[in-house]
Amino acid sequence: MPCRVKHRGEAKVSEYFEAIIQQNEKKPLLSSFRGYPLCGETIKLPQGFVGVVVDGKDNEFKVKSNFAEFTYWNWDKNPSDSDTVPQAFKWISIAAAIHKPIKPCDLN
């Protein structure tokens, strides 16, 4: 989310942050944070990938939980394929193609 909150500790997210899901699947998720409207989209991680939530410091981390999808939010516009988050996921398939070994028969 495009903000910085100087707070360390637990947050009652479900009490103060509620996403409103539209009836039409084409529309973005709508919510607000501190009075600012937010538009979001849920992204499923590609097959073979798992997201993790870690906790720790000084290069010692422990996995606290994992996830298969997440929601990203824009403050000033509807989600689109040109946003940085979806663009980052496009790199996964591009990177796989770039690093795929080339066989001699593929060159002919």
UniProtKB/TrEMBL annotation:
InterPro entries: RNase_H2_suC. Gene3D superfamilies: 2.40.128.680. One of its GO terms (biological process) is RNA catabolic process. GO terms for cellular component: ribonuclease H2 complex. It comes from the Eukaryota. This is Ribonuclease H2 subunit C-like protein.
